[in-house]
Write a structure and sequence with these properties.
Blueprint lengths: L2 E8 L5 H14 L5 E8 L4 E5 L2 E4 L7 E3 L2 E3 L3 E4 L10 H9 L8 H8 L1 H8 L5 E2 L3 E5 L5 H8 L4 E5 L9 E3 L5 H9 L4 E6 L3 E11 L2 E4 L3 E4 L7 H5 L5 E3 L6 H17 L5 E9 L5 E7 L9 H8 L4 H15 L1
Parallel strand pairs: 1-2, 1-7, 8-18
Antiparallel strand pairs: 2-3, 3-4, 5-6, 9-12, 10-11, 10-12, 13-14, 13-15, 13-17, 15-16, 17-18
Helix pairs in contact: 2-3
Length: 329
């Protein structure tokens, strides 16, 4: 009997646009001969499944749907919802309470890693991992600019602490630009992170766990024509040069695999995640940027690129994630 997959997408934030694109790609790659896949759309207003022209509501008591007088319950949830509530732990906590297996990190890890500042505090001290000097700010905090200028050197990166897709993020080269950048970030979040600029080559690497253990995919090197890898650079086709596998020598590859595996284990990750990092140009040191527990899954997204570069089939990769989630439960 085919397993029933709830492909959960949508969300409460502007990242829902990316979520829908990711879900369409994943759905096209899951074998319909092995799985019945239902796209479950979650918005602030409603939870539902589109069947034909009909919106079938999700019963939040047990995450089931009623179709033709049949109650359909799911075997596993494939979470592909970027931002809240799919990436911040809320959905995972709900699934834990009703006993539904899911493909992503658990509620605690998801909530923690959504906060960039807290995440860096946890992984700080891991072997070969370095972290840019930073200041974490909260809405309404007094003397914010003084706190930044007295502790950090220009240029700065100003970013929402709980955001994604580089929304609300700015690079500050002059102090005169700081106030506007802080306002822009606080429009997206009540916490922001201000970091010193690291002059480095930027990479992003997928890491996942299956029944054999933690595995690291080939990294993607990101070369952006913009000041940094912002929303436009991420989602405008052809704007950014992406090299997979990224240009690293054998020592760098080995060290990166060690660091990102340690990060994955330290944060108690499950399923697939994506870890972004710099290799500083002057020193070749590994600088941790952030971790994404629900990485994008469009045709041009990093994870599908890396799965292909590893000589794997993306359909088999997704099936592996599904089976691992079921076995873990």
């Amino acid at each position: 009997m085919k397993k029933r997959i709830a492909l959960v997408t949508g969300g409460f934030t502007g990242e829902s646009v990316v979520s829908f694109k990711s879900a369409d790609f994943v759905m096209s790659k899951i074998d319909p001969a092995r799985y019945d896949v239902y796209k479950v759309i979650i918005t602030i207003e409603d939870w539902y499944v589109e069947i034909g022209q009909q919106k079938v509501p999700v019963d939040k008591n047990d995450f089931s749907i009623a179709v033709d007088n049949e109650i359909i319950k799911f075997d596993v949830a494939f979470i592909i919802l970027h931002g809240a509530p799919g990436e911040d732990g809320k959905l995972q906590g709900y699934f834990d309470m009703i006993g539904l297996p899911y493909t992503s990190c658990n509620a605690l890890t998801s909530a923690l890693t959504m906060n960039k500042g807290y995440t860096k505090a946890v992984v700080d001290g891991l072997r070969n991992l370095h972290i840019a000097r930073s200041v974490q700010l909260f809405a309404g905090q007094k003397n914010a600019e003084d706190l930044i200028t007295s502790n950090l050197q220009l240029p700065y990166f100003v970013k929402p602490n709980n955001g994604g897709s580089s929304i609300g993020m700015s690079k500050v080269k002059e102090i005169s630009e700081l106030a506007e950048s802080l306002e822009k970030a606080f429009n997206e979040d009540s916490q922001i992170l201000v970091e010193e600029f690291i002059d480095g080559r930027e990479f992003s690497v997928g890491v996942y766990r299956d029944e054999e253990g933690v595995k690291v995919l080939p990294a993607t090197e990101v070369i952006s024509p913009k000041e940094f890898f912002d929303f436009e650079a991420k989602y405008t086709p052809g704007m950014t040069e992406e090299i997979t596998p990224g240009r690293m020598n054998e020592e760098e590859r080995s060290r990166v695999e060690q660091v990102v595996t340690d990060v994955y284990v330290k944060l108690n990750c499950q399923g697939m995640v994506r870890i972004d990092y710099f290799l500083e140009k002057a020193t070749d040191k590994f600088y941790f940027i952030e971790i994404n527990t629900i990485p994008g899954q469009t045709e041009t997204s990093f994870i599908p690129q890396q799965v292909k570069a590893a000589g794997m089939n993306i359909s088999n990769f997704y099936e592996n994630l599904i089976q691992t989630a079921v076995c873990r439960h």
